[in-house]
Amino acid sequence: MSKHIRTALLLAAGTGSRLRPLTLDAPKCLTEVSGEPILGRLIDNLRLQGIKRLVVVTGYLDECIREFLGKNAPDLQVDYIFNPVYRTTNNIYSLWLARKAIEESFVLIESDLVFEESMLERMLVPDKIAISKILPWMNGTVVELNSNNSVAAFHVSHDVNDAKRYKTVNIYSLSSQSWQRITKRLDQYVADNQVNEYYETVFADMVRDGSLEFDAVFFDKNKWYEIDCVKDLHEAELMFPRVPLDTISETAHLGHTSCLSPAKSTNIPKLENKRLRSDKIVHIGKLAPGEKP
């Protein structure tokens, strides 16, 4: 398969409130999974697939992300967009902020995902959506497919226990033409102050009226996990165990930075410690009034 896409848009503005206390002094994307930051894993995967440019929407602890990428992605072009209202808006607003920064085809990835490095290869041509058969731990946006394995409908924040539907993995590839149509629809949402929606709401509207199409890429046979809370982090560490140092390639980046979590907070035990009961600390991650995760 020819690889056309060389740009990735990463959304990394949120506070990661459900991962507190791990995110009190580091953004969610720098939380370590088996000793390696989520963002470090993601950057290594993107690099292996030939991505040359990153556009990163930041917000909470923006300086930590800049420090990390400055040290760990010197070979990539990195452009930053700061979301000043990250505490009170949803990801639709972060996506809208990127509307003028990208003109080419790109892959859109949420920065709380860990996955096998080979999974991105099939997403590097435009207008694809990564999906997976629904498993018990999954929640969030699901899609229905037509007979051609294209998306027939989105269902945002619905019950996912439906054999006819597939869970979105929160990885999308977009052509420049699709992106132009999306940004016009995003403009309408923001003008109407609908900034607390998920961007999938826009995708759902556009698929419904025929102005946006996605072909499905199935991730069922691959390992991946979306990390929203401490319990998710524990499960991800079981799925992606620590790699012995002598097996790490020379191009791997372990992400040395003063902002890493949980290493910076020495009073917080690592989840690799089997004695940790994640259900005992997940309640700490409470939202402040008006705050978005």
Automatic annotation (TrEMBL):
Keyword Nucleotidyltransferase attached: yes
Keywords assigned: Nucleotidyltransferase, Transferase
Alphabetized Pfam families for the sequence: NTP_transferase
Endpoints of the signal sequence: none
Domain Nucleotidyl transferase: start-end pairs: 8-236
Keyword Flavoprotein: no
GO molecular function: nucleotidyltransferase activity
PANTHER family with a match to the protein in the record: NUCLEOTIDYL TRANSFERASE, PROTEIN LICC
Name of the featured protein: GDP-mannosepyrophosphorylase, beta subunit
The organism of origin for this protein: Solemya velum gill symbiont
Organism classification: Bacteria, Pseudomonadati, Pseudomonadota, Gammaproteobacteria, sulfur-oxidizing symbionts
